[in-house]
User: Fold these one by one.
Assistant:
Number 1:
Amino acid sequence: MKILRIEHIGIAVERLENRSPFWAHVLGIKHASTEIVKHEGVKTDIYDTGSGKVELLKSISDDSTIEKFLNKKGEGIHHVCLQVDDVEQAIIELKENNISIISEKPSIGAEGYKIVFIHPKSTGGVLVELAEKAT
Ligand code: ZN
């Protein structure tokens, strides 16, 4: 696998409208998109610095992973996402190295990226997302 860059940092928030102004207006980072990712039960608000994004994540479902995260830990960094050239190849290599991944097959995340999550127990406590840009 080839890691291309840090794609984004995912931050769990209770309410987008309370947290967006800091990123958009105080820091002045360009808003890239707002999107509902239904199967993940989240609404995302994405800000693009031009070299890496900030992805605010709000739960829209009682059983989403973001809801569980917020209940357990409160607002804060939820995951770090690295862009890869080929997510299927990455999954093969992770399995060869006995790294715990959350699902065996990539799913489609925000902005159409093909994604897979690596379990924090394999990374030193950080949920890591690998994402391949849609072609
Ligand atoms: Zn993400």
Number 2:
Amino acid sequence: MIPGKGVDQALWYILGISAVMLVGITATMIYFVIRYRRSIHPVPQDIRDNVPLEIAWTVIPTFIALSMFYIGWQSYIGLRAVPENAIEIEVLGQQYSWIFLYENDKETENILVVPLGQPIKLNITSIDVLHSFYIPAFRVKVDAVKGMENYVWFNADVLGEYDILCTEYCGTEHSAMVAKLKIVPEEEYLVWLESEDE
Ligand code: CUA
């Protein structure tokens, strides 16, 4: 599954269930307030031990919670399963910028250029404190930790420029630790890769 799609599906699924619950529970409460108000129903009934009802309100929510887990887990698997043909780029977080290292030793700061139509794998670490690498448009986010390598991957499937953010407070210039992702046609990428340009 494409990472961004799975994350969005999990979001909409959970949001949808939450909305149905909110409306359903609120409507039932309002109905009960009116239906059992003191003026027409002065003596409350003491109802206990309805076994079928108790089973229902245990089992149904359990399955709803499990279905949320399942869809979230599917989306997580999509985020971790990197296609074998992915282009790998090393990413270093530092106070306060992102360094990108390409296979041919080309290095850029705060600009990540990738070719259209390719899966991209970013191997992410930090050279100082904790940072967090985040590309909202592709729904990928992972901590950059010194001494540890994390990764994200995404399909570079639409041309354009996208934001890259640091999303873990890492010092006074944290909010300025932003970079750009540029998805360009493959020919343009290959020329760029061999050039001195950032
Ligand atoms: Cu790096 Cu916040």
